[in-house]
Design brief:
This protein has 77 residues and is mostly helical. Helices cover 34% and strands 0% of the residues.
């Protein structure tokens, strides 16, 4: 594994209690390689959901806090 990715891997399974069918929906979208965006107010649990999904898929996770004033150029570089 690339040493640049290693710091972004989640080593221990994070706790997550599903509230509905979000895990199945995420898994179906991921299997079809569909892009996803999670949107919601501060404190609604977006990172709490994404962390166990990244752990399950053994993929790196780099958190990024966004707001309505951000543009694509803010994400480049």
């Amino acid at each position: 594994m690339d040493d640049r990715i290693r710091p972004y891997l989640i080593e221990q399974q994070p706790y997550y209690q599903a509230a509905g069918k979000e895990i199945a929906l995420f898994s179906a979208a991921f299997a079809r390689r569909l892009p996803m965006i999670l949107k919601g107010p501060t404190g609604c649990g977006k990172p709490r959901f994404v962390e166990p999904m990244a752990w399950r898929l053994k993929l790196p996770l780099i958190p990024l806090a966004c707001n309505e004033d951000m543009t694509a150029s803010d994400l480049v570089g």
